[in-house]
Specification:
Elements: E1 3-4, H1 6-17, E2 25-32, E3 38-45, E4 53-57, E5 60-64, E6 76-82, E7 85-91, E8 97-98, E9 104-106
Parallel strand pairs: 1-6, 2-5
Antiparallel strand pairs: 2-3, 3-9, 4-5, 6-7, 8-9
């Protein structure tokens, strides 16, 4: 399925602890849009939906809807901090093209 690096796990844990409401995990999805046709979406959520695939990375649970599962196969998610800024970086071996910002792709 997908991989969440140690750096990404640490960042998600930090965001979960700082949330105003109880958080059960991180939803990762692929939706239509962006420069290249598909884009990644991430949100903290209280609980998975009934048909979600639930993945565990240490103390972090990741919720993935059935339609996004095949599009996230083999994807590695990292959290990068640099002088230019910080954020999540997606490496998708299935993408045939992506935009310059790396947030949207085509399969």
């Amino acid at each position: 399925m997908l991989t969440l690096t140690d750096s990404a796990q640490t960042a998600v844990s930090r965001f979960m602890q700082g949330a105003d409401e109880p958080v059960g995990g991180l939803r990762i999805a692929v939706t239509g849009g962006g420069c290249s046709g598909m884009q990644y979406a991430m949100a903290l959520e209280g609980a998975p939906k009934g048909d979600d695939k639930v993945l565990e990375f240490g103390s972090v649970k990741v919720f993935v809807d059935p339609a996004s599962v095949p599009l996230l196969e083999g994807v590695t998610i990292d959290f990068v901090e640099s002088m230019e800024g910080s954020g999540f970086k997606f490496e998708n071996p299935n993408a045939t093209a992506s935009c310059g910002c790396g947030n949207s792709f085509t399969c």
